[in-house]
Amino acid sequence: MLDTAVLITLASRSAIGRQNQHKVAVMGASGGIGQPLSLLMKQAPQVSQLSLYDIVHTPGVAADLSHIESPAKVTGFVGPDQLKASLEGCEVVVIPAGVPRKPGMTRDDLFNTNASIVRDLCKAAAEVCPKAFVAIISNPVNSTVPIATEVYKKAGVYDPKRIFGVTTLDIVRANAFIGEILGVDPREVNCPVIGGHAGVTIIPLVSQCTPSVSLPADRLKALTERIQDAGTEVVKAKAGAGSATLSMAYAGARFAVSLLRALDGEEGIVECSYVRSDVTESPYFSTPILLGKNGVEKNLGLGTLTDFEKELVKGALPELLASIKKGEDFVAKN
């Protein structure tokens, strides 16, 4: 089962962090996701150095976080001239940088701005810390992960085991919604979510959930659609004030901590992630991944799908393939 309580309750694990400490970079640390994500990473006992990068305000964010009574040393870097310095010695690079969604915008609407940001950040990371695990949050993840891959290929340092699209928020949401339906602690729920990270490409495998969930077809369809549309639910609720930032920061920190635990040699760490894959005809696909010291240790695949879930996969593939091509074409042309 995924350890959904791993973030703030890491105090009990502090002994592990004292032995194996790591340098983590948050790229886009002054933004709506970046600030709460940085706060969570400051509290993770595996982190000894926290490097914060953004184009504005980062020294202030770093100064603020540095007053927190945890051991991690925080350094702020601001602007393109300090980009490479922010990445020196980093083992995990988390990228939430980019513009947020606003009402009426799809993740694809964000493409042009965020594609350039991810390209430039990955180009610097490929040069400065090519062996670091890269966890990409910037939307549209279905396209930005292929962008990262192409950048690393051009730099001659590509390792598919070390580049991850963070789809963890879809799992977090599925667990929360199913916990509500079952009337159980959502921390005890584990529902894998496969595919991609936008609309119909988000495929919750309710049939593989623990504890088991049995819903009539209409309620299963409604739950699936709510998980797929949950980002829009938040955008509408914030009424123009932003998108999902706090829940995304939690999910991003959960995934980053899982990477750090795997780096420390802890076994059995499983997270769903959008990675290079041959599980389906799509060259990138999110599935449960066993993490290890070198990144992806084993792709755990799809498991046994119901007919309903098979149709969801079939429906997701055309959109995934188009998004992937869009990312690859962007790097080829830019």
Automatic annotation (TrEMBL):
Family matches, as Gene3D superfamilies: Lactate dehydrogenase/glycoside hydrolase, family 4, C-terminal (3.90.110.10), NAD(P)-binding Rossmann-like Domain (3.40.50.720)
Enzyme class: oxidoreductase
Catalytically driven reaction(s): (S)-malate + NAD(+) = oxaloacetate + NADH + H(+)
Ranges where the Lactate/malate dehydrogenase C-terminal domain occurs: 167-331
Key words, A-Z: NAD, Oxidoreductase, Tricarboxylic acid cycle
A biological process from GO: tricarboxylic acid cycle
Active site (catalytic residues): H197
SUPFAM superfamilies xrefs: LDH C-terminal domain-like, NAD(P)-binding Rossmann-fold domains
Residues binding NAD(+): G28, A29, S30, G31, G32, I33, G34, D54, N114, I137, S138, N139, M248
Ranges where the Lactate/malate dehydrogenase N-terminal domain occurs: 23-165
Protein residues bound to substrate: R101, R107, N139, R173
MF (Gene Ontology): L-malate dehydrogenase (NAD+) activity
GO CC annotation: mitochondrion
InterPro entries: L-lactate/malate_DH (IPR001557), Lactate/malate_DH_C (IPR022383), Lactate/malate_DH_N (IPR001236), Lactate_DH/Glyco_Ohase_4_C (IPR015955), Malate_DH_AS (IPR001252), Malate_DH_type1 (IPR010097), NAD(P)-bd_dom_sf (IPR036291)
Entry's EC annotation: 1.1.1.37
Record bears the keyword DNA-binding: no
PANTHER family per UniProt: MALATE AND LACTATE DEHYDROGENASE, MALATE DEHYDROGENASE, MITOCHONDRIAL
Subunit structure of this chain's protein: Homodimer.
Family to which the UniProt record says this protein belongs: Belongs to the LDH/MDH superfamily. MDH type 1 family.
Name used for this protein in its record: Malate dehydrogenase
Species name: Amphibalanus amphitrite (Striped barnacle)
Gene designation per UniProt: MDH2
